[in-house]
From TrEMBL:
Keywords: Ribonucleoprotein, Ribosomal protein, RNA-binding, rRNA-binding. GO terms for biological process: translation. Transmembrane segments: none annotated. Pfam families: Ribosomal_L21p. This is Large ribosomal subunit protein bL21. The gene is rplU. GO terms for molecular function: rRNA binding; structural constituent of ribosome.
Length: 126
């Protein structure tokens, strides 16, 4: 089963356990968020929305908030001694798609537990 969702002005085709980077959305790391703008739900018989599929949503776990690569906008006007350099970095949220929901269902899968790092016991000094 797959779905086409719309967020941040872009459309993404997602299946469960996909990891994708989208524009920043609200949500703490480790929480489950629901994305409500579902344009298509596909299975044996795909359901097309007009413009969205009623009662469908996609549940996703927030993995990380980070910044994207640096983008430089450099403009130069030759022979005019005029230059301008601007740069920016997009704010990005990394999501893992947990499930595709239909018929106004609530997410049944909670956030996955984090793996604990095993530290070697330190030798005690006498």
């Amino acid at each position: 089963m797959f779905a086409v969702i719309k967020t941040g002005g872009r459309q993404y085709r997602v299946v469960p356990d996909d990891v994708l980077e989208i524009g920043k959305i609200a949500g703490e790391v480790g929480t489950i968020v629901q994305l409500g703008e579902v344009l298509v739900v596909g299975a044996d018989t795909p359901v097309l929305g007009a413009p969205t599929v009623a009662g469908a949503s996609v549940a996703a776990e927030v993995l990380d908030h980070k910044r994207g690569p640096k983008v430089i906008a450099f403009k130069k006007r030759r022979r005019k001694n005029s230059r301008r350099k601007r740069g920016y970095r997009d704010e990005i949220t990394v999501l893992r798609i947990t499930e595709i929901l239909t018929d106004n269902a609530k997410p049944s899968i909670g956030p996955r537990p984090k793996r604990e790092k095993v530290a070697a016991p330190a030798a005690e000094a006498s």
